[in-house]
Amino acid sequence: MAGSQFGKIFHISTFGESHGKALGVVVDGCPAGLSLSEEDIQEMLERRRPGKNLKMTQRKEGDKVEILSGIFDGKTTGTPIAMVVWNEDQRSKDYGGIAHAFRPGHADYGFFAKYGFRDYRGGGRSSGRETIARVAAGAIAKKMLLELGVSVRAKVIELAGISLTESREKAELLAEQKILSLREQGDSAGGVVECLVEGLPAGIGEPVFDKLDASLAKAVMSIGAVKSVEIGDGIEASKSLGSENNDAFFLKQEQGFDSFMGSLQKGSNHAGGILGGMSDGSTIRIRAGFKPTPSISKEQQTVNEAGEAITIAIKGRHDPTVVERANVVVEAMTALTVLDALLENLSARLDYVKKAYQK
Ligand SMILES: Cc1cc2nc3c(=O)[nH]c(=O)nc-3n(C[C@H](O)[C@H](O)[C@H](O)COP(=O)(O)O)c2cc1C
Known about the structure:
The chain is α+β, with helices and mostly antiparallel strands. Helix content is 26%, strand content 22%.
């Protein structure tokens, strides 16, 4: 399927459907010499696995990754790394009732309109399970970034309209109660994930169409159910004044011009670490707004493939909110984008190229 590839240098190509044989990814362009094991990938996949708490779908998915190629003696060889997760828990019958109906809020109608027929089992390629491939590739990107002193970490900061930024424990409990009650009512809720990138040097990102913020927005918006992406203050910046929104620059200490690179600091970070499409050396701050899970068991009006108006109540095991499982997906997409931009930056200056090829 066109549209299943991402990244220029650290390039990924994903495949597989929710209820097909397997999901997987081929990572091409990973430099040789990175130590990598299935455990490194599995650790990150565990964070998106369903059934860990009552707010998550109770589907049991083993999601055990197998690395098929690209590793020798525990290290990447520079050749394509193919990874696969075999599908185990496929209850296609759960979807029988809605096989020919377009679920409101889901991708069914779009797929049908585009291709003329669709894989209705669990949403096929539009299922949340598609994100397994992104997370597996993201785990390699994160490991490589750590080698470069760059960390990427996402967390849920709002759930079902409840902010988790203050008194987190109490707020989490409130949000959990709200989501469980929504689940009882056959409904669902959304939320917000914030991702921080620390340790990225200044100057990463390619003006003008491949600005770092533009690439991050595309990467994160490509995750199912994401409806907004903000960098730094995001939409709030449009309400503030220039004097409030500009982040003042300071020198860490008095230094001459030649040595000031890397020692510039900002008094605030409204920009979210990106200016002119390039990193400014401060923390990159991205927020992703997720809509409520579309598949709900509450009765809804819709239309089927025969053009008949019908009422549906979606059975099957769905997340009352996708946000907690999607958290790690935001982290993965961010890591893939930042690593690709870092690798691309290697050819930005003659002296970088000379350094690599000096005799
Ligand atoms: C990790 C993850 C899990 C998801 N789980 C479900 C689910 O159980 N049921 C569902 O209807 N949608 C789920 N979704 C959302 C759908 O994939 C998404 O809403 C759908 O493809 C329509 O695309 P759109 O919302 O981006 O327009 C999940 C998304 C993610 C990222």
